[in-house]
Sequence to fold (553 residues):
Amino acid sequence: MSKLEQLPAWRALQARRTAHPLPVLRTLFRNDPARAARMQASACGITLDYSKNLLGEDEFALLLALVDEVGLAARVQAMFAGERINSTEARAALHVALRSPADARWAVGEVDVAAEVHAVLTRMRAFCERVRSGEWRGHRGGHITDVVNIGIGGSDLGPAMVCEALADCADSGLRMHFVSNVDGVQIRDVMRRCPPESTLFVVASKTFTTQETLANAHAARAWLVGALGDEAAVGAHFVAVSTNAAAVEAFGIDSANMFGFWDWVGGRFSLWSAIGLPIMLALGPARFDALLAGAHAMDEHFRSAPAALNLPVLMALIGIWNVNFLDASSQLIAPYHQRLHRLPAYLQQLDMESNGKSVRHDGAPVGVRTAPVLWGEQGINGQHAYFQLVHQGTQPVPVDFIGVLDAGREDEGLHRIAFANLVAQAEALMRGRSADEAEAEMCAAGLPAARIRALLPHRVFSGNRPSNTLLLERLDPFMLGALIAAYEHRTFVQGVIWDINSFDQWGVELGKQLAARVLGELDPLAPQAGEDAHDASTRGLVERYRAHLRSSV
Ligand code: F6P
Fold:
């Protein structure tokens, strides 16, 4: 039995789960008129309603006790103090320093992190103002009309998601494009749409060794040089964001056009760093500052609010209850706002790359289930696709409904329809439809008794399906920053409870190594890989591709 399973609160939670039937939400709401008001928390313009979770008072109290028993306060302090909490890479995880005010004091070892962060922000602002104002010129003297971010994972998902989410306040007129896939299709589409003489490429890679990003960057560079007929054009059309200055220079980008960050910024926590350059280009420095301010406000809430009122802690505890005590193996993210449609993909990396682990800090097996499969897309489309399973499937799928109160530039009447659907879905999942209710409905519709009997099992919804509802007052840079930071801290808290390192990602390495080897073997002129190089299936797939290449020359 793992250390976690031996904690008194964990054992008590398990005992309750075994000894008591799950609470029935309809009954909880009926018997406790204050439940909804009590099971809410707000911070930074975001309200979390967690009352539609299968938690009674006792379970909730035990989850709060767990926070103390795992020593969360000390772990939070260690993160904010810049301790090397990413133990396997011996690094701090100090993304919170990226969004703190200029006069804050942060240190990693002897280094004054705050000064470095703000020095880069100052350079980013100056550069973005030049591009946005038209002062920055392309090789042929024209101003920039299109920005193409080339990156993948954390060097793509954050900027892409935020640029989309805040597109309504983008005022630069710049057209933003994101290329991450290396299959050639995405970059070709971008090349078709972008005029080379007015396109700026941002090559974003923390390591600057990522195969997909470098291959796409080389393709973009060849296209640009080919179109403008001059190697020297690269200087005016390429900038880089990286921690690896040597590799950036080797690629041919002047270090004056490189924006740096640091090894203590994890890729999936990096949109607040220079990785956010496309965001600043699209929205301007003031709105980027507001995004940082929103995240900082959530950081302050996270480190100071008591657990029972702490948004990220509550979100984490509910997740722990769902995963470890209700056996939920997935988590649906359902934003009811078109602009947030990339949020699930962003959160997927944040959560699954952080907590998709099976060993603890000390290398021993975790012993309990860790991160669920996080998935989703904007909720309205989901309702007409996979919500059937969420309502009547055989497995519990907890949902985070995310809504926005202010319609902004949207038509309020249309926005209201989306909001009504959000509320209705959460209610339907919670209350379900009993056999009596289903029968009464069919009787009222005049169905014959035999038909009612046949249809009844299909028309019953068990209900009692858990969800959170997160409401943002507005979709603006501040609140989006706060929302993202809330999810970041939620992921961190769950990592603390499971005692795993949320900041490394060794699981992605093996595939990368094998891909490099397979790439060499796919060359039809390369000798065939030896019998023992791969299993028969892998060898067969490689041979199939080589044969295809041979037959198509
Ligand atoms: O392969 C996973 C990963 O390392 C992510 O953690 C990271 O966000 C992404 O690849 C991109 O890495 P880089 O920014 O170094 O190109």
Notes: Residues 152-155, 205-207, 210, 213, 267-268, 353, 505, 508 surround 6-O-phosphono-beta-D-fructofuranose (CB under 6 Å). The mean pLDDT is 96.
